[in-house]
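tl;dr need the bound structure. longer version: we got a ligand (zinc ion) that a collaborator sent over and nobodys looked at where it sits. i said id run it. heres the input, straight from their email, havent touched it
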Amino acid sequence: MKTTEKVMEALFQRLSMEEITYLNQSAQQIEEDYKKHFVRIFSTLNRRLSFANRESLISLPATDSAKLLIVNWTVLKLARVWLLGLLHDEKEAYQQFIDKLFEYADMQELEALYAALPLLDYPELWVERCKEGIRNNIGTVQQAVIEHNTFSSSQLEEEAWNQMILKAFFTGKNILNIHGLFERNNPALAAAIVDYIYERDSAKRDIHPMLWVLAKEALPERALGILEERYAAEQDPHNKSLLLQALATNKNQLSQPFMQLHASEFDQISPIAEVLEAYKK
Amino acid sequence: MCTEMNRDLSTMGKPIPLELDVIKGMKFVDPHIHMVSRTTDDYQALFDAGVLLVIEPAFWVGQPRTGLDTFKDYYSSLIGWERFRASQFGIRHFCTIGLNSREANNEPLAEQVMELLPHFIYKEGVLGIGEIGFDDQTAAEEKYYRAQLELAKEANVPVQVHTPHRDKTRGTIRSMEIALEHGLDPQMVIIDHNSEETVKDVLDRGFWAGFTIYPFTKMGNERMVDIVKTYGPEKIMVNSAADWGISDPLAVPKTAALMLQKGIARESVEMVTYSNAIEAFAVSNHIDLASLNDTLQADPSAKFEGNTILRGGQQPRLNKGSIIIS
Ligand SMILES: [Zn+2]
């Protein structure tokens, strides 16, 4: 079964008969002449679904949705993404049409449009758009691009990817929801993270534990000193376990006094996958 | 577009200490406020005072726009960034979209803006067309007022009408007559910025009457108390029209407090500061009103987990009493 069909199946399970009929009709109209019908259907969809339905949340197993990672989407967002999946045309017309949707979009439409990036035809056309989404100032829109979205990990070049990861930290996103986080980790990102760690430390602010995990292969001496201090002061057991992972990678470079106090804590270190899983919860 | 400074200190009344305790637990709507010109302090103060829903009419931003794109970006910000910004403070943000009277006088640009409007009026967060109407009462203003009334009729959405400062009574009556001429239902039209001089004409014709509590140039809220005592609470609503001028974003809750202190019944105060606006702008077509109660009752310190209940208090508070910024 194709992605769009799986999505449709899951979506229609949530809707009333009336809503299903409307969406089926709409899909038919889009097929007949999308240029005439799509904008109206897409933009006014919020007024076609009941309050309860449009805001209720839906998740699908990743295997069922292929390129789409549907985790806690509103039904409205899923329905809009499904509609977007029905659009097909030759390249130039397709791009022009989708660009206009972005240009006039309201907040929820933007969320749907960015969430649909992995589903759109001609992926190369949407790389700049994806970067713009990351620069967007609206939290929920950023989230639609950054979290549970396969487009960025498969299409962004390294520089843009690294900007996205840093942005995710700066704007308080759920880092473990970033698809491809570890696969696309790289030395340039680690260097930028180290710089960020220094800045946070100088400001005496919290340092996100995942920063240490991502940069653990490339921590200079000064960073290790900060890491030792932060580890000793850390109260939260899950955060502490993450910091321990970064310490373990650099075990041979740690200071004598630190090792004297904490050496035994390395003995029972858990595998990183388990630590991340526990932290996620 | 609501300021016109001609202070007359005698109209300012004697100061009464701010007593917001009497309105604790009440919720309010400010049906006319220009949040793009306001700070985050205002959002926090609004939330604290119980203003859970605001309506922001598209207006003149103080500096004339010279191109279509600045209109487009402004409208986009009303359905995008500003809406999100409000939500961070637990406030539901809605808007009305329109070409304001002042800029209707730039006809070549106005023509283009008219073509832009249909792209925006059906968007999420847009309740209707506004604020439109007369300012200098020119022919161009009339032309685009009429064109936008037609648009509202076609879309079957409410209209928020700005009435002029100068030659107000005549301008107000003219605005209503034109709306009736175009076949609009007065139930769908909010005539704003009323005064003692215009209120009777508006209510007699079956329109909603908005009152802007705006220091120095428009209504003071003591006068507002007298109006509600005289005309009752039906079809009357108050707003702050707070913008980039000296204005008070807490005008609605403050007026509610004053009305209660002056012996107006609580149900009447609720109508004038909440339910009439909800009904006039058909807000229940856009959100489940029960969610406003959820916001009112929610623990502001509870963590916001991306669900649709807005709790407020998710943004940190500055310590205003300290010279330390950390
Ligand atoms: Zn105004």
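gonna send this back to them w/ a short note. The domain at 25-297 of chain B is CATH 3.20.20.140 (TIM Barrel).
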